[in-house]
Amino acid sequence: MKIYAFKCLILIGLLLNKTYSQELVPPIQNYSPTDYSGASQNWDIAVDDSGVIYTANNQGLLVFDGLSWELFPLESQSIIRSVYPHNDRIYTGSYQEFGYWERTPNGCMDYISLTPLLEKFGMNSDEFWEITSHNGAIYFRSFGAVYEYRENRISKVEDVVSTALGVYNDKLIFAPRKNGLSYLDKDQNIKKLQGDLSLLDGVNIIDIEAKGDTLYIGSKESLYVYSNEKLSKVVNPDLNELLKRSELNHIVSVSNHEIILGTIKNGIAQYNLKTDDFHIYNRTSGLQNNTILGISYAKEKLWLALDKGVDRIDLNAPIKFYTDNTGELGAVYDLHKYKGDFYLASNTGVYSFTGDALQLIENAGDHTWNLEEIDGVLYANHNTGVYQIIDKSFIPIDTRTGSFSIDRINETTSNLLISHYTGVSKYNRNSGDLRELEELNFPVKNVVFEDINTFWAAHPYEGIYKISHSDFEDLKIEKIRSLGDNENFNPKVYKINNQIIAYVNDQWFKYNPFQDDFQLFNELKSFNGSGLISNGPDHYVFVNSETGNLLISDLMDEQISLGPKDLNFRLVKSNENFILENDSICYVTLNDGFARINLNILRKENKEQWVSQPFLKEFSDDIQRYSLEKKPVISYKNSHNITVKAGMPVSKANKLRYNLDGEETLSGTIESGTLNFRNLKHGNYHLKLSASGNNNEVSTTNFEFSIAPPWYFSGYMKLVYLLIVLALIFFIYWMNQQKLKKHQLQLEAKFEKEHSERLNRIEKERLINEIDLKRKELANTTMMAAKKNEVLMEIQGELNKDKGKFSNQFRLKHIMNKINNAVKNKDEWKVFETNFNEVHEDFFKDVLQKYPRLTSKDLKLCSYLKMNLSSKEIAPLMGISVRGVEVHRYRLRKKMDLDSDVNLTKFLIKNF
Question: Element (H or E) spanning 644, and its range?
Fold first, then answer.
């Protein structure tokens, strides 16, 4: 009997697990030990006012700023069991250790131990499991006691085993083991909580949570509610069975009537006290682990410390997901709600989704592109043809080739057009007749009807075609020219407000029937680069081909944006699909399931969304970290690699941008929380961090720093440069002065030289004139002497002719002697020689030096020849005949050893 009961219990558990495993779940973000580089186990988790996450990890304190994780171990390497942020401090408790962490001005985390204040209490292997604050004091508990930390003093509140600690109605509440609940009054006295608490007798309370006037109390197997001094037990058999099997471990309130129950064995349960129902989110739903060791709720996000990893759940997110973790479903291309059930078209087939159970329709395996309901009939465009879905059965219509879409021709006919891999077929749903339009012998992705005789076909690769016909006879096929700069590859054709619209090459075009041509659609110019995946009637949904953002618009005022991050980066690239169920609910197909979106909540969230304030947590170079509280100045030699670490707590912010202004201007996106600036120029800089949401909400942080100039541009060196410049200017001035003086001296020397030369020239001219004058005088004197001697010699000659006629021969002889003496007067020669030497200085010396054998008579002849006198002129001067002069000249030539052809006069004039 016991074995049978045990098997039944296991079966019930499996059924319960199956029931809730396939529910639509809110977004769940997993952070594995690999992500945060810490131990698997996390014992507690808390969120500060700015949104930073703190986790008590086996290896230390884990801090998550929204972009990156940091691990700060204790010196003792102890396991941290509890964490509590309060007034810029993060209090942590571990084995025989209690203290707090603080951020230093340079962003480091410093730990201050308060354990020395506990030594007087003689702790015995105590571990501190829970921390809270009340009336300016910090309270922390171990299994042996509850302590108060106030004004740097620690006192013991109660020396008993307490299993829970909290604040309710401005009272510190704790739970003595299996002895109800007690509180600390204003006089620091311990009293029992008011009211009848007999239900708690013998109950080991695991956790308590206060919300307004309500106190939730949890044991391992039950949940209690205390309000207005009355205690009641939650009576919900399914919930109690769940808690009994799963072991309640934590309680946290998320609204006035909803609480989260964290369990040891089955994840969490979201319990609504008003409706008395609950939803389970466990490993099957997307959690990393079913053991919940810590819970924190802030900014509408639930943070879970797990036995393996950390998870985040956006409980109130407008988006909920269905995820097929088996991989059987594959990428979903379309979804349709038909007769109360959901049908999914994926790359592996068509599935029904009933009661949260997924089931492949028989014979519907293989790629399916589209689901379309026409007049109450559901059709599937399958890789093998076109099918009807009737009572979850796959009924073939055409299986010759795969199909892309099926469309109603108009409201008055039962004919449908099927676009398939090889063309287009007309199908009569009443008669079942199927006719292929043979003229269209190429693949057609979809068709749009302009009027009863015209439709447009989109070829998946080669462009757009306009087809005119008469009741689908005599088809006239016209290929549309290339729109834009490229060929019309993978075009999309739509009909909006009775107008044919085409999206080609990331641009929107509209058809002008008067010009029979397409032209740019300026009304949709702002949506260039975004394809249309749903067109109305009241909502138009675009997807940006570059960013992957979904934009839901009514083409007037409303625009709602969804980023890839909002959909967990799970969109089916190039095959996105958006299905509108009603004005509020819509669906988006994903690569492993689908998402359900509540547009009303999404609108409200977009209006009220919180964008967290980014902050700097480190600013450093290769050598040191700098204070974040004042403007740092970095030395130039250490500025080649500047590291900036930033945080952006989890919010609706989807990216963190930076803008650096200064000597250089840089901008970009910070992905992992770390930013490096390399080889910046020296000068002042302004760094701006901007967190932005989907609707352009922006939250910013500013930081200023400067890079000191290199040593050769420092103030000291500038002074040196100034002195050098001044010295250089002075040196240049001095050099110019020296040059000026030198030039002046040169000018003076030149002037003096020119003056001297001018004087010398004047003197020379004077001397030349004197010489010329003396030469002339010499010549005149010589000529006069020659003339005189010539006359005397003529007289002597006449006397010689008539000497016989003279009676006094003695007297005649005396006269003749006087004439000879007059002719050969030595005084005249001396005067001549003196005058000659004045005109021809050193002549006789030079001639004698060269010809020392010459006689005085030879020198006399040389002087006369130097004066260029003829033999006739020389004869009287020497007192000899012309013949005698010639003979003397001959002899002189011989002495000088001159050739006969050398003119003696010219020789003497030229060489002496």
Answer: strand 641-647
Span 139-150, average pLDDT:
90
Q: Which of 268, 317, 269, 313 is nearest to 293 (CA)?
A: 268
Task: Report residue 372 as tokens.
Answer: 């379309």
Interatomic CA distance for residues 640 and 757, integer angstroms: 72
As a CATH number, domain 615-713 is 2.60.40.10
Measured in degrees and rounded to the nearest 5, phi and psi for residue 417 equal -110, 130
Q: For 183, phi and psi rounded to 5 degrees?
A: -140, 165
- Tell me the residue type at 69: W
Average pLDDT over residues 555-564: 84
Reported as a single tens digit per residue, the pLDDT across 184-208 is 888 888 889 999 999 998 899 999 9
Q: Which of 453, 455, 454, 381 is nearest to 420 (CA)?
A: 381
Is a pLDDT exceeding 80 seen at residue 3? no
Assign 3-class secondary structure to 440-464: CCCCCCEEEEEECCEEEEEECCCEE
Contact 726, 732 (CB under 8 A): no
Q: Token digits for 88?
A: 């810029």
Joined tokens for residue 462:
């080669």
| Single-letter residue type at 458 | A
User: 539 and 553 in contact (C-beta within 8 Å)?
Assistant: yes
pLDDT at 18: 36
Please name the residue ranges forming H helices in 205-274: 237-246
CA pair distance 501, 509, nearest whole angstrom? 6
φ, ψ dihedrals at 15, nearest 5°? -65, -45
CA distance linking residue 145 with residue 158, whole number of Å:
5
Judged by DSSP in three states, 628 sits in coil
Look at 859 and 588; give whichever has higher pLDDT.
588
Per-residue pLDDT at 874 exceeds 50: yes
What's the chain's average pLDDT? Answer: 87
Which residue in 537, 550, 643, 631 sits closest to 589, CA to CA? 550
Ordered DSSP codes for 554-619: -SSS-EEEE-TTTTTT-B-TT---EEE-SSSEEEEEETTEEEEEEHHHHHHHHHH---PPPEEEEE
Residues facing residue 434 across a β-bridge: 427
What is the C-alpha to C-alpha distance for residues 382 and 512, in angstroms, rounded to an integer? 35
Domain 615-713 shares a fold with domain 840-912: no
pTM of the model: 0.75
CATH of the domain spanning 840-912, picked from 3.20.20.60, 2.102.10.10, 1.10.10.10, 3.20.20.370: 1.10.10.10
b/e per residue, 340-379, with b = 16+ CB within 10 A?
A: eebbbbbbbbbbbbeeeebebbeebbebbbbbbeeeeebb
pLDDT digits (tens, 9 = 90+) for 397-430: 999 999 999 999 988 888 999 999 999 999 998 8
Mean pLDDT of 16-29: 63
Q: What whole-number distance in Å separates Cα of residue 480 and Cα of residue 461?
A: 13
| Nearest in space to 695 (alpha carbons), one of 608, 613, 612 | 608
pLDDT category, 779, cuts 50, 70, 90?
A: low
Q: Domain coordinates of the chain in residue numbers?
A: 529-607, 615-713, 714-825, 840-912
Q: What is the pLDDT of residue 827?
A: 63
Contact indicator for 378, 389 with CB cutoff of 8 Å? yes
The mean pLDDT of 893-910, rounded to a whole number, is 80
Nearest to 19 by CA among 324, 360, 357, 278: 357
Q: At which residue do the structure tokens 């608490």 appear?
A: 197
Long-range contacts (CB closer than 8 Å, 24 or more residues apart) made by 889-895: 889/861, 889/865, 891/858, 892/854, 892/858, 892/861, 892/862, 895/851, 895/853, 895/854, 895/858
Tell me the C-alpha distance between 147 and 427, whole Å.
81
